[in-house]
Amino acid sequence: MKGSIAASRYARALFELAQKRDSLVQTDHDLTALSEIYRTNPVIERLLFNSAISIQDKEAFLTRLVGAHLSPLVMSFLKVLLQKRRFRELLSVQAEFHRLMEKSQGIQEVTVLSAVPLNAPNRDSLGKMLEKKLKSKVRLVTKTDPSLLGGLIVRFDGRQINGSYRDRLRAIKQSFLAC
Protein backbone atom coordinates (compact mmCIF):
# COMPACT_ATOMS: atom_id res chain seq x y z
CA MET A 1 0.00 0.00 0.00
CA LYS A 2 1.46 3.30 -1.10
CA GLY A 3 0.95 6.04 1.43
CA SER A 4 1.33 9.76 1.50
CA ILE A 5 4.46 11.64 2.44
CA ALA A 6 2.76 12.50 5.73
CA ALA A 7 2.10 8.82 6.48
CA SER A 8 5.75 8.07 5.79
CA ARG A 9 6.88 10.80 8.16
CA TYR A 10 4.49 9.71 10.91
CA ALA A 11 5.66 6.11 10.50
CA ARG A 12 9.32 7.11 10.68
CA ALA A 13 8.73 9.23 13.80
CA LEU A 14 6.87 6.38 15.50
CA PHE A 15 9.55 3.92 14.39
CA GLU A 16 12.30 6.04 15.93
CA LEU A 17 10.39 6.39 19.21
CA ALA A 18 9.65 2.66 19.35
CA GLN A 19 13.28 1.87 18.57
CA LYS A 20 14.49 4.11 21.41
CA ARG A 21 12.06 2.40 23.78
CA ASP A 22 13.02 -1.05 22.48
CA SER A 23 9.40 -1.77 21.59
CA LEU A 24 9.47 -2.23 17.81
CA VAL A 25 7.81 -5.65 17.83
CA GLN A 26 5.11 -4.61 20.31
CA THR A 27 4.39 -1.41 18.38
CA ASP A 28 4.20 -3.31 15.09
CA HIS A 29 1.86 -5.86 16.66
CA ASP A 30 -0.36 -3.09 18.09
CA LEU A 31 -0.53 -1.21 14.79
CA THR A 32 -1.31 -4.38 12.85
CA ALA A 33 -4.12 -5.37 15.22
CA LEU A 34 -5.53 -1.85 15.25
CA SER A 35 -5.38 -1.60 11.46
CA GLU A 36 -7.29 -4.85 11.14
CA ILE A 37 -10.01 -3.58 13.50
CA TYR A 38 -10.18 -0.29 11.60
CA ARG A 39 -10.26 -1.99 8.19
CA THR A 40 -13.03 -4.44 9.09
CA ASN A 41 -15.35 -2.07 11.00
CA PRO A 42 -16.72 0.75 8.85
CA VAL A 43 -18.70 2.06 11.85
CA ILE A 44 -15.43 3.04 13.53
CA GLU A 45 -14.36 5.01 10.48
CA ARG A 46 -17.70 6.84 10.30
CA LEU A 47 -17.49 7.71 13.98
CA LEU A 48 -13.89 8.92 13.84
CA PHE A 49 -14.56 11.14 10.81
CA ASN A 50 -17.86 12.57 12.02
CA SER A 51 -17.17 16.30 12.35
CA ALA A 52 -20.03 16.65 14.86
CA ILE A 53 -18.06 14.58 17.40
CA SER A 54 -15.30 16.38 19.29
CA ILE A 55 -11.71 15.15 19.21
CA GLN A 56 -11.87 14.57 22.97
CA ASP A 57 -14.90 12.29 22.53
CA LYS A 58 -13.12 10.43 19.72
CA GLU A 59 -10.06 9.97 21.95
CA ALA A 60 -12.29 8.68 24.76
CA PHE A 61 -13.97 6.27 22.34
CA LEU A 62 -10.60 4.91 21.16
CA THR A 63 -9.38 4.58 24.74
CA ARG A 64 -12.47 2.58 25.71
CA LEU A 65 -12.30 0.47 22.55
CA VAL A 66 -8.62 -0.48 22.47
CA GLY A 67 -6.80 1.41 25.22
CA ALA A 68 -6.37 -1.60 27.49
CA HIS A 69 -4.87 -3.65 24.64
CA LEU A 70 -2.38 -1.16 23.19
CA SER A 71 0.90 0.18 24.50
CA PRO A 72 0.93 3.76 25.84
CA LEU A 73 3.17 4.75 22.92
CA VAL A 74 0.62 3.59 20.33
CA MET A 75 -2.27 5.18 22.25
CA SER A 76 -0.41 8.50 22.36
CA PHE A 77 0.34 8.17 18.66
CA LEU A 78 -3.34 7.57 17.86
CA LYS A 79 -4.27 10.69 19.77
CA VAL A 80 -1.75 12.69 17.74
CA LEU A 81 -3.26 11.32 14.52
CA LEU A 82 -6.72 12.37 15.72
CA GLN A 83 -5.59 15.83 16.80
CA LYS A 84 -3.76 16.44 13.53
CA ARG A 85 -6.72 15.04 11.55
CA ARG A 86 -4.50 12.35 10.01
CA PHE A 87 -6.28 9.23 11.24
CA ARG A 88 -7.11 8.33 7.62
CA GLU A 89 -3.39 7.66 7.23
CA LEU A 90 -3.44 4.82 9.79
CA LEU A 91 -3.27 1.95 7.27
CA SER A 92 -0.44 3.61 5.33
CA VAL A 93 1.41 4.39 8.56
CA GLN A 94 1.08 0.76 9.65
CA ALA A 95 2.36 -0.56 6.31
CA GLU A 96 5.32 1.84 6.30
CA PHE A 97 6.14 1.13 9.95
CA HIS A 98 6.17 -2.61 9.20
CA ARG A 99 8.43 -2.04 6.19
CA LEU A 100 10.84 0.03 8.31
CA MET A 101 10.89 -2.63 11.01
CA GLU A 102 11.64 -5.41 8.54
CA LYS A 103 14.36 -3.31 6.93
CA SER A 104 15.96 -2.73 10.35
CA GLN A 105 15.98 -6.50 10.87
CA GLY A 106 17.64 -7.11 7.51
CA ILE A 107 14.51 -8.49 5.86
CA GLN A 108 13.86 -7.46 2.29
CA GLU A 109 10.45 -7.74 0.63
CA VAL A 110 10.58 -9.31 -2.81
CA THR A 111 7.49 -9.45 -5.03
CA VAL A 112 7.32 -12.26 -7.57
CA LEU A 113 4.76 -12.23 -10.36
CA SER A 114 4.10 -15.48 -12.18
CA ALA A 115 1.59 -16.65 -14.77
CA VAL A 116 0.36 -19.42 -12.47
CA PRO A 117 0.51 -19.72 -8.68
CA LEU A 118 3.84 -21.05 -7.41
CA ASN A 119 3.64 -24.28 -5.43
CA ALA A 120 5.32 -24.50 -2.01
CA PRO A 121 8.55 -26.24 -3.17
CA ASN A 122 9.07 -23.71 -5.99
CA ARG A 123 8.33 -20.81 -3.64
CA ASP A 124 10.78 -22.16 -1.05
CA SER A 125 13.59 -22.75 -3.54
CA LEU A 126 13.04 -19.33 -5.14
CA GLY A 127 13.12 -17.72 -1.68
CA LYS A 128 16.40 -19.48 -0.82
CA MET A 129 17.96 -18.53 -4.15
CA LEU A 130 16.94 -14.87 -3.69
CA GLU A 131 18.31 -14.82 -0.12
CA LYS A 132 21.62 -16.11 -1.46
CA LYS A 133 21.74 -13.56 -4.31
CA LEU A 134 20.59 -10.59 -2.21
CA LYS A 135 22.61 -11.63 0.85
CA SER A 136 19.70 -10.86 3.17
CA LYS A 137 16.58 -12.46 4.55
CA VAL A 138 13.68 -12.31 2.11
CA ARG A 139 9.95 -12.03 2.63
CA LEU A 140 8.47 -13.36 -0.57
CA VAL A 141 5.18 -11.89 -1.81
CA THR A 142 3.79 -13.91 -4.70
CA LYS A 143 1.16 -12.68 -7.14
CA THR A 144 -0.25 -14.20 -10.30
CA ASP A 145 -0.70 -12.45 -13.62
CA PRO A 146 -1.85 -14.77 -16.43
CA SER A 147 -0.86 -12.17 -19.04
CA LEU A 148 2.80 -13.05 -18.38
CA LEU A 149 2.23 -16.33 -20.27
CA GLY A 150 5.09 -17.93 -18.34
CA GLY A 151 8.30 -17.09 -16.51
CA LEU A 152 8.63 -14.61 -13.65
CA ILE A 153 8.95 -10.93 -12.86
CA VAL A 154 10.91 -10.26 -9.67
CA ARG A 155 10.68 -6.84 -7.97
CA PHE A 156 12.76 -5.67 -5.03
CA ASP A 157 14.32 -2.47 -3.77
CA GLY A 158 12.99 -0.39 -6.67
CA ARG A 159 14.40 -2.82 -9.24
CA GLN A 160 12.70 -5.27 -11.57
CA ILE A 161 14.00 -8.39 -13.29
CA ASN A 162 11.67 -9.37 -16.10
CA GLY A 163 11.99 -13.00 -17.13
CA SER A 164 8.45 -13.35 -18.44
CA TYR A 165 7.58 -14.95 -21.75
CA ARG A 166 5.47 -11.91 -22.55
CA ASP A 167 8.60 -9.73 -22.37
CA ARG A 168 10.62 -12.16 -24.46
CA LEU A 169 7.91 -12.26 -27.14
CA ARG A 170 7.77 -8.45 -27.13
CA ALA A 171 11.55 -8.32 -27.64
CA ILE A 172 11.35 -10.79 -30.53
CA LYS A 173 8.55 -8.75 -32.10
CA GLN A 174 10.63 -5.57 -31.78
CA SER A 175 13.62 -7.24 -33.43
CA PHE A 176 11.43 -8.37 -36.37
CA LEU A 177 9.95 -4.90 -36.73
CA ALA A 178 13.44 -3.37 -36.70
CA CYS A 179 14.51 -5.47 -39.71
Write the topology of this structure.
Layout: H1 5-20, H2 24-40, H3 42-48, H4 55-66, H5 72-83, H6 90-104, E1 107-114, H7 120-134, E2 137-144, E3 151-156, E4 159-164, H8 165-178
Parallel strand pairs: 1-2
Antiparallel strand pairs: 1-3, 3-4
Helix pairs in contact: 1-6, 2-6, 4-5
Report on this model:
With 179 residues, the protein is α+β, with helices and mostly antiparallel strands. The chain folds into two domains: 5-103, Peroxidase, domain 1; 106-178, no CATH class. It is 60% helix and 16% strand. It has helices at 5-20, 24-40, 42-48, 55-66, 72-83, 90-104, 120-134, 165-178; strands at 107-114, 137-144, 151-156, 159-164. A four-stranded mixed β-sheet has the order 2-1-3-4, with helices on both faces. α1 (5-20) packs across α6 (90-104) and α4 runs antiparallel to α5 (72-83). The longest helix has 17 residues, at 24-40. The chain is elongated, with a radius of gyration of 21 Å.
Main beta sheet, described?
A: 4 strands, mixed
Question: According to CATH, what is the class of the largest domain?
Answer: Mainly Alpha
Count of runs of 4 or more consecutive helical residues: 8
Give the helices and strands as they follow along the chain: HHHHHHEHEEEH
First-residue to last-residue Cα separation: 43 Å
| Helical content (DSSP H or I, runs of 4+) | 55-70%
| Corresponding CATH superfamily of the largest domain | N-terminal domain of the delta subunit of the F1F0-ATP synthase
| Radius of gyration over all CA atoms, rounded | 21 Å
Beta-sheet strand percentage? 15-25%
Category by helix and strand content: alpha+beta
Count of β-strands: 4
Which fold name is given in CATH as the topology of the largest domain? Peroxidase, domain 1
CATH architecture of the largest domain: Orthogonal Bundle
Spatial order of strands in the largest sheet: 2-1-3-4
pLDDT average, as an integer? 91
Number of domains as seen in the coordinates: 2
Shape: elongated
Low-confidence stretches: none
